[in-house]
Amino acid sequence: MSTRFVLNETSYFGKGARAELPVEIKKRGFKKVFLVSDKSLVDAGVTAKIEEILKNAEIPYDLYDKIKPNPTIENVTEGVEACKKSEADVIVAVGGGSSIDTAKGVSIVMTNPDRADIKSLNGLSNTVNRGMPVIALPTTAGTAAEVTINYVITDPEAEIKMVCVDPNDIPVLAIIDSELMASMPKGLAAATGMDALTHAVEGYITKAHNEMSDMFHMKAIKMIFKYLPAAVNDKNEEAIEMMGMAQYIAGMGFSNVGLGIVHSMAHQLGAVYDTPHGIANAMLLPTVMRFNGAVCADRFREILINIGRPDAANLNDQDVINTFVWMISELSKSVGITTTIKDYGVKEEDFEMLADKAMIDPCKPGNPREVSKEEFIELFRQAM
Q: CA 319, 321, 325 angle in degrees (round to 5)?
């Protein structure tokens, strides 16, 4: 049986790497940029750093910034219309997962107009045509949207997050410039960092994991435990740069082997309560890992040894599970995430509705342990 791995063509890493953008645009023969970003980054002057580069290189562009956190179908459809009007031939996405995911959605609809309803892209999209070229410049160290074949769009009417899986959406170029990430507020840096950890941990234990994905995920886990606190609490330049690389490495893995029920549950918190995705993952990760420990304590043991706990080799399975869950919780607390899902408006009477939605989430099948609706309800209860 074969195993498929999809990775993007080219990536640049390092402080100031955005200087490569005009070189690559011209080398690839692109004439006009459709610049996708969000209003908060525009207001913070982050998007202006890219605009300045484009202006200096005399590359024309149009800016689209009507994007909200947890982007919606409307954000994509409005983006498609703006892109058509622009008559650009390349999309440059500047931002976190919201901006890059919106850009991917626009990219796909631009070349697959029969999927303009957006809803039909949920799950395995099976589009025919490669999307309009996307160049991604992440400003957060968490989602790895610049290297994955996934994008997530909220359907407000159905109150679900659609996980669209499509190799045709992967950016042709990723530029991971730590200077663009340095402006992240502490809370955002913490949330996106825990999102990256969730990607790496879930990818390491997912049913479809393999030797290649294990290599990516284990390295990412080690880097995140090492660098996240300094990146968040000290704004350490090296730590920020290493977090940018760690989340990218995790993305190369999970994009190809999938995730698990932390994401199945977190997607519902984002869709129903607009909970920031990284925060949702951080709040749910310890609870779900305790649940999954029943079938993957050996995988947890390997992680613990890799992150500086050689004594885990001699611990029994229950102690391994307890230690791993404790280390995740302590890392989350160390970067200031101490909330529970109750703090985001979740009520006990919502559990059944949330469980129903989690049961049909595209990330559920990858979880190493089977989970029932009743078990989802109990997991939400434990996360309160």
A: 115
For residues 132 and 110, the answer to whether their CB atoms sit within 8 Å is yes
Phi, psi dihedrals of residue 139, rounded to the nearest 5°: -110, 0
Q: In CATH, what number does 186-382 get?
A: 1.20.1090.10
Q: Is 249 exposed, middle or buried (0-12, 13-18, 19+ CB in 10 A)?
A: buried
Residue 75 and residue 66 in contact, taking contact as beta carbons nearer than 8 Å: yes
pTM: 0.96
pLDDT in tens, 311-338: 999 999 999 999 999 999 999 999 999 9
- The yes-or-no answer to whether 10-181 and 186-382 have a common fold is no
Angle between helices 277-306 and 186-205 (to 10 degrees): 50
Residue 250 tokens read as 């995790």
Closest C-alpha to 352, from 370, 375, 372, 377: 377
Give the span between the Cα atoms of 313 and 319, in whole angstroms: 11
- Alpha carbon distance 250, 219 (integer Å): 8
Q: What length does the chain have?
A: 384
Tens digit of each residue's pLDDT (9 = 90 or more) over 235-275: 999 999 999 999 999 999 999 999 999 999 999 999 999 99
Alpha-carbon gap, residue 13 to 244, rounded angstroms: 8
Q: Which residue type, as a one-letter code, is found at position 297?
A: A
Domain 10-181, CATH class in plain words: alpha beta
Q: Where are the domains of the chain?
A: 10-181, 186-382
